[in-house]
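Structure request: Alpha-galactosidase, Gasterosteus aculeatus aculeatus.
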Amino acid sequence: MCVVAVLLLLVAALCSATLALDNGEMRVPPMGWLAWERFRCDLDCEHDPKNCISENLFIDMADRLAEDGWRELGYVYVNIDDCWSSMKRDEKGRLQADPKRFPRGIKELARYMHARGLKLGLYGDMGTHTCGGYPGTTLDNIDLDAQTFADWEVDMFKFDGCYSNATEQEQGYPLMSKALNATGRPIGYSCSWPAYQGGLPPKVNYTELGQICNLWRNYGDIQDSWDSVLNIINWFFENQDVLAPAAGPGKWNDPDMLIVGDFGLSMDQSRAQMALWAIMAAPLFMSNDLRTISSGARTILQNKMAIIINQDPMGVQGRRLVKEKIGIDVFWRPLSKNASALVFFSRRTDMPYRYQTSLSKLNYTAGSYEIYDVFTGKSMALKDSAPFVVSVNPTGVVMWHVSAPAKWNPRHFYKGGRRQGPAFDGGEENAVPPVFL
Ligand code: GLA
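Returned structure:
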C-alpha cells in the first residue's frame, strides 16, 4: 500500500514538473487570416462598409478562404482583432460585441465559420483596456471572459498586453491559460506577453511560455513595409539561439502577420517573407484583403511546398547558418524524414547576386540530394561536394526543399515478397542532419 502511495505521489510530482499546455492544439503552426494589420480599427461602417470592423468583413474573408482554395491548404482561422467589442460589458459583467457592427453576435459568427470548416479567433487584452481603448480583461475578469469565449464557441484567443504592468502580466497570462483549459473547450492561446517584456530572457521565460501558450508574439507589430519585415527578420535570427529552442509542436514563436498581398512588398520581398516565415515555423496569419488580392500574391501564399515546409510535423524552428559580408544570408530548417529546407536571401540593393557555395559547405553530409526549387518548381540532383551557384534577386530569396540522400534500402523494397515502399528512400541510417554553424 505504502509503496503504491509513494509511487502515485512520484507520478503526480513528475506530471506537474512536465506540465505543458496540453490542449492538443496547434501541433503545427496555425494558419489563417487576421484582421489587424490590413483593417486596423476602421469603425466607419457608414462610409467604408466593406472595410470596417464588422461581422460582414469576417464573413467575406471566410467565404474567400472557403471558396478560393485557402482552406484546403490549411488556412482555416478567421481571427478578429481589436475593436470588436462594445465599450461596455453587459449587465452580468460579460464582454459583448458591438451591437451595430456585430448584430448577430460572436457565437453566430463562430457557427458561420464552423459550418464552412473554418475556425474563429478572438482578441482580448490583459489589462484595463485593449490597445485600441476597448474594455480589457483585468485579473478579476479572467474566468468569466474565458467562459464567455467558450460559450461563444471561439477556437483561438489572442491575449494582448496593453495597460497592465509586469506583475499583472505574470499572474494574468498563466491564469488565462488555466481558465481556458478549465472551460473544456480546446482554444488555441496566443500570448503577447513576451512582446511587452522585450522578448528576451531573463525577463521572458520561454520554458514557462511553452507550458501555458500555444504561440506568442515576441516582438513589435508588423507594418506594411519591407523595412518592417526586415527589422523583424533581423531580430528573430539575431536571437535564434534563444528563440529556436523555445518552439515545437503546440508552442510557436510568432513574428506577426504575413503582409503579402498588401501594398508594401514587391513580389521578391513577398517570397522572402513567405520563405522565412516557413523557415521560422511561424504561424501563417495573412492580414490582407482576400477579395481583391493579386494573383501574384495569391500564388506565393498558396505555394504548396512553402506550406509543407512551414507545417512540417517535427516542428523544429530553422536558423541562419551563414551571414556573408557581401549581403547574402543562408537559412536552414531540418524537416522530418531527414529532409531540410534552405533559403538563400539577399540584402543587396544592386542586382541579382550569383552566390556560389556547396551543400558540404553548408554542413550537409556526403551524398546525392534531390533539390526542389520552391518558387520555380524545378528539380535537380546535387552532390554534397558539387559547387553550385544560385542567383538571388535584391531583397529576394531562392528557396530549396532538400530531400535526404537517395540510398538503396532493400528493407523498404521487399517485405513478405511484396514491394512496400520506394526503392530509394531517405536513408534513415546514414543521413545525419547538418550541424549548426
Ligand atoms: C497591439 C498588438 C497588435 C494589435 C493591436 C490592436 O499593438 O500588438 O497586434 O492587436 O494591439 O490594438
